[in-house]
Design goal:
Layout (H helix, E strand, L loop, with lengths): L1 E7 L3 E8 L4 E8 L3 E2 L9 E2 L1 H18 L3 E8 L5 E3 L9 E2 L16 H9 L8 H10 L9 E3 L1 H10 L5 E3 H7 L2 E2 L4 E2 L1 H6 L9 E3 L4 E5 L3 E4 L2 E2 H9 L6 E6 L3 E7 L9 E4 L5 E7 L4 H16 L6 H11 L11 E3 L14 E3 L8 H22 L2 H4 L4 E5 L1 H4 L2 H11 L3 E3 L5 H12 L12 E3 L1
Parallel strand pairs: 1-6, 3-25, 6-16, 10-13, 17-23, 23-24
Antiparallel strand pairs: 1-2, 2-3, 4-5, 5-8, 7-9, 11-12, 14-15, 17-18, 18-20, 19-20, 21-22
């Protein structure tokens, strides 16, 4: 008996097979080659949903040819983004991803599309949220004429796998579109209509783990869940007592709360099976190190010197001794792409002296900045929720491959950081969703081994 999970990421698409008897995981990862080039001036970020589905189907066919006893399929993927489908469930548009920046363009003299929709609806929103993207498209006549519904890319994948003609969206994904009531777990139709949006475009909302249909007429496929929640499920064993940090291109800090609570600068997101996770999300994270690497490379090119590329940079980074932190360091704010609430905010490097501006110190300063941005989110969480949170769990390549960053995070948070037992945590979390269905008695199994 095996279960299959798919994670449709922004830059890669991953599938895992989990065997609950042997507790083993087999994974396949393929590059997401569906990016469509757009003019930078319009800040559009789009991908081709047909190419995405081609990759998803390649992974599923590869697994089903080897495993004939798959009992369920769970799906997750990049949140916030949307595409439009017609009444037959066929895609009419590209996928507008979570990185779409058109919501920050000016609609009026001094107000952006985000500002206007937030004011009209009464909900704090950010560019890249599905309804912000739809609001922009609506005003600029970019909504396809025959569009019947909008949905996320993982909801679209569920449609294509099951032959459904209309999308189902679970609470975890619906929240990422915006204007979603977190207490009653439904779209705020009155607020959305007040903003001039026809609510008939919205997909049907259901709880997590609903059976959506069958792949090839026999393998159950369940409603998709958000990748943040899926990553939490795939990483964390002790849900009530853990702090989850994931650092990839961006970074996130997530903790579980049994009760609904609203905290400024944090997202409150529904959790499969009940309760919520409080999430502090940055727009940069590990990308900060890529920015620094490119700066060093450009400096070397400027002086006509050969450079070792990405591998050389990260080798040098790993060679910095963990016990060599000087007391007087530059301080780096790593919000190089702004923040969700302050999109025009920029990164900054301060406390530079004549003695401390060295390559090593600058690297450590960037790592401190990545950790500090996450720790600032943690400090916002009320003490009653933080009480008992004594396990720090890390996931994502930018943290797993960076022992110096691990040491900095441990110092800042004051506790030991452990890694999740499996790679491809979001795909595994989706797999658990396919296992649990609507029961959601989640307790992550101990690993036996992992095959790549």
């Amino acid at each position: 008996m095996h279960y299959l999970g798919i994670d449709i990421g922004t830059s890669s698409i991953c599938g895992v097979i989990y065997d609950p008897e042997t507790k083993s995981v087999t994974s396949i990862t393929k590059e997401n080659t569906a990016v469509i080039e757009s003019l930078p001036v319009i800040r559009e970020k789009i991908q081709n949903p047909s190419l995405i589905m081609d990759t998803v189907m390649d992974i599923i066919r590869e697994f089903t040819s080897k495993y004939t006893d798959i009992k369920g399929i769970g799906i997750t993927g990049q949140m916030h983004g949307i595409l439009y489908v017609d009444e037959n469930g066929e895609a009419l548009s590209p996928l507008y991803t979570w990185q779409d920046g058109r919501g920050n363009l000016l609609l009026e003299a001094d107000r952006t599309y985000v500002d206007c929709l937030s004011e009209k609806s009464g909900y704090p929103l950010a560019t890249g949220y599905g309804l912000v993207t739809h609001f922009y498209n609506m005003i600029n006549n970019n909504v396809p004429r025959k569009a019947a519904k909008l949905c996320t890319i993982m909801d679209y994948a569920v449609m294509k796998l099951t032959g459904r003609k209309s999308p189902l969206i679970d609470y975890t994904n619906a929240t990422s579109l915006g204007c979603f009531g977190l207490k009653d777990l439904c779209f705020d139709l009155q607020a959305i209509e007040k903003a001039g949006i026809d609510v008939s475009i919205l997909p049907e909302t259901r709880e997590s783990g609903v059976l959506a249909g069958y792949y090839s007429g026999k393998i159950p496929v369940y409603s998709a869940i958000g990748d943040n929640q899926a990553s939490f499920l795939g990483s964390v064993k002790d849900i009530p007592h853990s702090i989850h940090i994931t650092i990839g291109t961006s970074s996130q800090l997530s903790v579980y709360s049994k009760e609904y609570v609203k905290i400024e600068s944090l997202d409150t997101r529904p959790f499969p099976g009940g309760g919520y996770i409080l999430v502090g999300a940055t727009l940069c994270g590990g990308q900060s190190l890529v920015i620094l690497k490119e700066f060093f490379e450009q400096t070397l090119r400027f002086f006509g010197t050969e450079y070792a590329g990405a591998a050389g940079f990260f080798e040098k980074l790993a060679s910095i001794p963990e016990d060599s932190f000087p007391k007087d360091l530059p301080f780096t704010e790593t919000c190089f792409y702004g923040t969700r609430s302050k999109p025009m905010k920029r990164g900054a490097i301060t406390n530079i002296s004549a003695l401390n501006l060295t390559p090593e110190n600058l690297i450590i300063s960037f790592l401190n900045g990545i950790s500090s941005e996450l720790h600032a989110f943690y400090e916002l969480i009320p003490d009653p929720i933080k009480t008992g949170k004594n396990t720090l769990v890390g996931s994502g390549n930018s943290i797993k491959k960076n022992p110096l960053l691990v040491k900095i995070i441990e110092r800042q948070f004051g506790c030991k950081l452990i890694f999740s037992d499996y790679a491809e945590e979001a795909a595994l979390g989706a797999c658990f969703c396919g296992m649990a269905g609507r029961s959601f008695n989640f307790s992550q199994p101990e690993p036996a081994h992992q095959r790549q």
